[in-house]
Amino acid sequence: MSNIYLSNYELNDALNIYFSNFDFKEKLEREEILTCESCGRVTSKAVYAKISYPFYNSSAMDGIAVKSEKTIGATEKNMIELYENEDYIVVDTGDPIPKGFDSVIMVEDIIKVKEGCVKIYKSVLPYENIRPIGEDIVQNTLILPSNHKIRAVDIGALLCGGVNSIKVYKKPKVGIIPTGTEIVEPALDLKVGDIIESNSRVFSALINEWGGEALRYDIVKDDYEKIKAAIIKAVDENDIVLINAGSSAGREDFTYSIINELGKVFIHGIAIKPGKPVILGKIKDKPVIGIPGYPVSAYIIMENIVKPLLEKYQGLLHDEGDIKEAVLSRRIVSSLKHLEFVRVKLGFVADKLIATPLNRGAGATMSLVNADGILKIPQNCEGLEAGSKVKVNLLKKTNEIKNTIVVIGSHDPIVDVVSDLLKKSDGGYSLSSSHVGSMGGILSLKKQECHIAPIHLLDMESGEYNIPYINKYLKGMDIALIKGVKRIQGFMVKKGNPYNIKDLRDVAELKLRYINRQKGSGTRLLLDYNLKKLGIDFSMISGYEREEFTHLGVAASIKEDDADCGMGVYSAAKLMDLDFIPVCSEEYDFAVPESYLEMPMIKKFIEVIKSEEFFKELDRLGGYDYLECGKIVKVRG
Ligand SMILES: Nc1nc2c(c(=O)[nH]1)N[C@H]1C(S)=C(S)[C@@H](COP(=O)(O)OP(=O)(O)OC[C@H]3O[C@@H](n4cnc5c(N)ncnc54)[C@H](O)[C@@H]3O)O[C@H]1N2
Ligand code: MOO
């Protein structure tokens, strides 16, 4: 059994302790490679020019090479005649300047008199229009210093300076061993309990991006001797070894014991979340790291430990990346026990950079895909209030974030379609959507934290959709409603409707497993409205408290037999191949501050939802009426 009691070092302390066990200067290995293949590599030595560039005096223009003294006094009134070979020689840009000549007159500044004779009306100075020897690079001057990461433009200067091969640090070789009896290679014929092996492929891509050379080994089952043999082989074949999963305290988490048997573990457990149970060890003077299995934990360890390690092997200083100040849109509670890395979405709304936290689960790979930045909550902080100013490490370029429409509110599969069509459009805009329900969307419009809020809110008294809610909750704001679709809401049940559900009475009487939507979502309001109409108390519905955030999430739970019934849109049922019992048609619209209608990206949004291509997609999804789609209704909130 491995040691269950993990240590709790602060990240920086852990890095200092760990790295102090290696002499990285000694580990820097050098090699000579072709300059033309050196992009991304790091110079291990200063590089000086072997030749000057140009290495001869050359013409900077198309024209004639002349002797400048012969041009003195030339004016429009007093043109001077020059004769070929004796007074001038025709040259093109880049040609060497013939001996005895010292300047060039551009072809547009000469008047041809006859074959072999021209007139000039301007004098030239010595070396005018000539690129003298070494104008760009002088032999023996420095082109690149040591420890410089070679860029595309550097290659040009190196080659011009006669440097055809270059000394660089060797790429550190990194062996990656995925472990776990339940881990399988990516496939679709999966059985319950299988876990698709994805981490090692992410690691390989990151290592290659960071200048290393990744070598991925086959998956090793949770077997002490097998993992040990794999580690011994990988240590022999690489400079650094990463072992994935088996880092925590489970029955089959062997990594700690094996590293300790073959070498030494310095640290097991760091005060960060996710990524806590990382193991930092050494075998045969090589770093061997046990990386937690959860994909987000693994990524955080890669960024914060493996990247700095690779930098040490290449003589590079640590690159902190781009950090920007943002305003937090929602409150986050954190623990005093660790530094927490929270993935956030970013958007510029009303000139403020707004950060919205994403799913904080260590297994949420989509939180990494959707993240625009990472926010660090310090160890001694219990959390952050909504509205507080925070610093975020950017994962995207500022311009891309500026070209993102921030959509917060109710979810519908059509939002994904709009997102795809916007990205494909000539504006190349992005759409970032958070599903917090219609009321959450209204609130976020009020706080100026989104551009668009998709809503479907039925006013029980008037029977009217959306506008009464804008009037009530967005008082004093000029809001426009971009009309969206009429969509069919109903109950989703398994194919063939095995319990023969007709309405909510059956769900209550048969005590079927219901799956609800989150508070504040229009779909939940619709359920409550229907329960009230039928006189059923919510306590009669088992699973009423169980919340999902999207229609597709509800549909997936029913499909996987984790629930019997849930409310959602027809398209979600169809996408998941479920049966559907229609209840009503509702209006799903997009609320937007009127002033945003003039923004090019909002104009593009409207153009997209009025396009034939969009309607075609709606037909494919099914259950949508788009007669009014894109129409603008102005509402004074
Ligand atoms: N009793 C305790 N249980 C756990 C603790 C703890 O302290 N006490 N720590 C938790 C934390 S925090 C983390 S992080 C994980 C670390 O788990 P392991 O490194 O031991 O990894 P496994 O348990 O084998 O796998 C966890 C999880 O990771 C995913 N996984 C694993 N390998 C891959 C791969 N190659 N590609 C993609 N995904 C992978 C998979 O979802 C596994 O279920 O332990 C907690 N438990
Ligand atoms: O440390 Mo684990 O990585 O929190 O999820």
Automatic annotation (TrEMBL):
GO biological process: Mo-molybdopterin cofactor biosynthetic process
EC number: 2.10.1.1
Gene3D superfamilies: MoaB/Mog-like domain, MoeA, C-terminal, domain IV, Molybdopterin biosynthesis moea protein, domain 2, Molybdopterin biosynthesis moea protein, domain 3
Pathway in which this enzyme or protein is active: Cofactor biosynthesis; molybdopterin biosynthesis
One GO MF term attached to the UniProt entry: metal ion binding
Keywords: Magnesium, Metal-binding, Molybdenum, Molybdenum cofactor biosynthesis, Transferase
Pfam family, one: MoeA_C
Described purpose of this protein according to its UniProt entry: May be involved in the biosynthesis of molybdopterin. Catalyzes the insertion of molybdate into adenylated molybdopterin with the concomitant release of AMP.
Family: Belongs to the MoeA family.
Listed NCBIfam families: molyb_syn, PRK14498.1
Name of the protein: Molybdopterin molybdenumtransferase
Organism the protein comes from: Caloramator quimbayensis
